[in-house]
Design goal:
The complex is a heterodimer of chains A (about 260) and B (about 375). Chain A has 9 helices and 12 strands. The radius of gyration of chain A is 19 Å and the shape is globular. In chain A, the strands form 3 sheets. Chain A has a 6-stranded mixed sheet with strand order 6-7-8-3-9-10, sandwiched between helices. In chain A, α3 runs parallel beside α5. In chain A, about 45% of the residues are buried. The N and C termini of chain A lie far apart (about 50 Å). By secondary structure, chain A is of the alpha/beta class. In chain B, α2 packs parallel to α14, α4 packs parallel to α9 and α6 runs antiparallel to α12. Chain B is globular, with a radius of gyration of 23 Å. The chains are: A alpha/beta (about 260), B mainly alpha (about 375). The interface between A and B is large, with 60 and 52 residues.
Chain lengths: ~260, ~375
Amino acid sequence: MKLPTVEIESLSFSYGSNPILKDICLRLEGSKLVCIIGPNGVGKSTLIKCINGLHSPTSGVVRVDGRDVQEYSTREIAEKVGYVPAASSMSFPMSVIDSILVAMDTGNRWRLDENDIELAYRSLKVMNMSGFALRGCNELSAGQMQKVSLCRGLVRRSQVLILDEPTSNLDVRHQLFITQFMKVLARESGCMVIMISHDLNLAARFADEVIVMAEPGVVHSFGRPDEVMTEEMIREVYSVDSKVIIDEGRPHIILRTAESW
Amino acid sequence: MSDEAVERAVGEWLADDRSDRERDLRQYHRYTRSKLLFILACVAVTVLVSGYAISIGEYTISFGTTYVRIWEHITGNVTHGIDDAVVWNMRLPRVLGGILAGVALAVCGVSMQSLLKNPLADTYTTGISSGASLGATLAICAGVQIIGGDYSVVVNAFLFSLIPMMMILAVSKMKNASVTVIIMAGIAVMYLFNACNTVLKLWATDEALANVYSWSVGSLTGLTWSNITVMAAFVIPGVIVLQVMSGQLNKLMMGDECAKSLGVNVEMFRLVCLLVTSLVAASVVCFTGLIGFIGLVCPHVARIFIGSDNRMLLVASGAFGAGLLLVADVIGRVIISPNTLQVGVVTAFIGAPMFLYLIIRNKRTGW
């Protein structure tokens, strides 16, 4: 299988006259887990929405597999890039299994393929949610709901999978599992997983590459965790005093104090 | 969390032969069958009530015979002239009109609610019914007719029902199709049109007022085959189009951004859906008058039984709507016989308490 690529060339984006992203250049290639970290409001979500075509760049180009995202049709880009939003809303109660099947590209067929149904069940099994298939989504806890959202991303089996804070409602055990799962999934299936994370240690431990974003909507640094996850970076980007210990080639961050408020 | 556990989970995800496959598929099929059962039950009720509705009246035909007479007419083998005339020319249009109206209003309710992600959305809250109502009042009271002749009221209602739709579309274009804006615009239009309606009635003659009244409560009386043909020409293709789009409608329920990331061209899709829904609703409202409640309640009742998957929900709600409307019409015809209580009144009388009971009893409501 061809390795997925995402190229971002001098990308800028503004909401009206309010600039969010400024001149971002990045090149991501191959099957790996890429974590995007950075403080609140520096445009992490905006960046990933430019990658999957939800936002059109004010200037610059985003290419997925060599082709400008703006040239893809809505359906084509959706097939290429899977996306799990930070929060999902459900206007009406729907069973868990149905809500996953919604995300599958079933076209307009009245009956679903048996393989589609099996895949939806399999995603639940993997997320350890087998018993919940016929439960209503509104009966689930926030964490369980988040796992169902992840299932919806998984079943699309896209080449690039984008996750916006996929572990924000999960306990440590699940955070560890999901992040490592994404790393192994990328390696084994050849897809690229891009995820926004607020947990520096998880990103440091599992990410193949880390994008650090900082005010005012720029990329502070980009590279392997041991290259970018440094005490200086954390001080400059987050204004937090920390100690970084390298253990088995991976940085571990011990947070001390927030310097200025 | 050991590394092997994660590796195993990924392996399981990527492997296509899973031992639980059959069990899971069986569970899903059982689940689907339970949904189909609800639809079948509604269809069965509709068919039975249709037969009963055709059999009652001043000229009595036995329940079983009605089906025979219909079958004979369809196969061109009429054995009983009077029965045939009564069934085919006098009673069947009313029943078919009821079925079409029920299906149309209930399906429009589902599509409006899913489209606008709002449990209160139906042809009323979006102003489409008030538009039709104003058009009819104008024709009856003030003699304002865009096209004269027998169909003036109907054509007027139809054209005026398109005004709120156009406004909704225009407003949604201006404000980037936000859902709340669409509903608020619809409600604003509704109030405006209702006020116009009231003003018109001030100057209306008694006769015209009675006409306006009977139109505004909604009834199936006086439907003819030519009415049915027009209704069917809009309702049947419209419902098929909505059913075909139901998968996308599902995605839209998850939110605009989510739908877009799942490959739905959201703005375009919403416009098409709104247009189809308005046409279907208007084509029914202009013949039957304002039959309330069906469009709002049937989707919710169907949702309680089968969930919010639009692929099934559209059909289920349509079937339930047809059944409910026919039952209401039959009750309206027999309860104060020989007078007739308009179907719009009966739907509210049986629908409202039933709906209240269901929403109070049901714990799975998500709205």
